[in-house]
């Protein structure tokens, strides 16, 4: 049976974060607010938990799950190397609506889907999400909805779609505009924007000081 915690109430927030952290460590799923839409999250290093996340969304491994982190420095242990381009984007846009794709560290034993040896990383600009991430470490997070359905803009929407497949719902109130993060791929010779979302291609190019490939 899932439990919903109202994070606008101080004691509920504390209890909810503790319950969510316990659930993640036990390989269970949680729903958390982010600065875009609500996310469904799991321990990024538990392949069974990530499989449960994909099953809850009715989604296959062909669309790999991104990873949210709670600090800039966390990514140093997750990727093969952090190029200067990544540092510039992190300093400019994290925490916020920019996701960065990099080759992941080969020593990591995780299974986020068919990612081709890469990982998509983001640090969200939401205090509840940040507090949970700093407690449990990197989390595999996808939008809190069933595949093909609209992303959840609040905890009630998420619960209606995902039900008891999720152990803990952290209700942080309505999300902002349902605009996805911009995704920048840094795995090639030149930076490429795979999806233009809340951060414009022009803003990315300005920070990097170079032309950036745009999505088709």
From TrEMBL:
Its EC number is 2.7.7.87. Signal peptide: none annotated. It is found in: Cytoplasm. InterPro entries: DHBP_synth_RibB-like_a/b_dom, Sua5-like_dom, TC-AMP_synthase_SUA5. It is an enzyme of class 2 (transferase). One of its GO terms (cellular component) is cytoplasm. Residues 14-199 form the YrdC-like domain. GO terms for molecular function: ATP binding; double-stranded RNA binding; L-threonylcarbamoyladenylate synthase; tRNA binding. It catalyses: L-threonine + hydrogencarbonate + ATP = L-threonylcarbamoyladenylate + diphosphate + H2O. One of its GO terms (biological process) is tRNA processing. The keyword Transcription does not apply. Pfam families: Sua5_yciO_yrdC. Keywords: ATP-binding, Cytoplasm, Nucleotide-binding, Nucleotidyltransferase, Transferase, tRNA processing. PROSITE patterns: YRDC (PS51163). NCBIfam families: L-threonylcarbamoyladenylate synthase. Belongs to the SUA5 family. This is L-threonylcarbamoyladenylate synthase.
């Amino acid at each position: 049976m899932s439990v919903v915690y109202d994070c606008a109430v101080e004691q509920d927030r504390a209890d909810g974060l503790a319950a969510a952290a316990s659930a993640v460590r036990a390989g269970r799923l949680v729903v958390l607010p982010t600065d875009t839409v609500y996310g469904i999250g799991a321990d990024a290093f538990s392949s069974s938990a990530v499989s449960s996340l994909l099953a809850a969304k009715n989604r296959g491994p062909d669309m790999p799950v991104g990873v949210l982190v709670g600090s800039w420095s966390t990514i140093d242990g997750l990727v093969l190397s952090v190029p200067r381009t990544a540092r510039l984007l992190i300093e400019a846009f994290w925490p916020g609506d920019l996701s960065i794709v990099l080759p992941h560290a080969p020593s990591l034993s995780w299974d986020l889907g068919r990612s081709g040896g890469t990982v998509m990383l983001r640090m969200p600009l939401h205090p509840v999400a940040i507090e949970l991430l700093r407690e449990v470490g990197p989390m595999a997070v996808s939008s809190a909805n069933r595949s093909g359905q609209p992303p959840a803009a609040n905890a009630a929407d998420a619960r209606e779609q995902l039900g008891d497949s999720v152990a803990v719902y952290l209700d942080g109130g309505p999300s902002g505009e349902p605009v996805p993060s911009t995704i920048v791929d840094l795995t090639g010779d030149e930076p490429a924007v795979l999806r233009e979302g809340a951060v414009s291609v022009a803003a990315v190019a300005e920070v990097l000081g170079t032309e950036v490939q745009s999505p088709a």
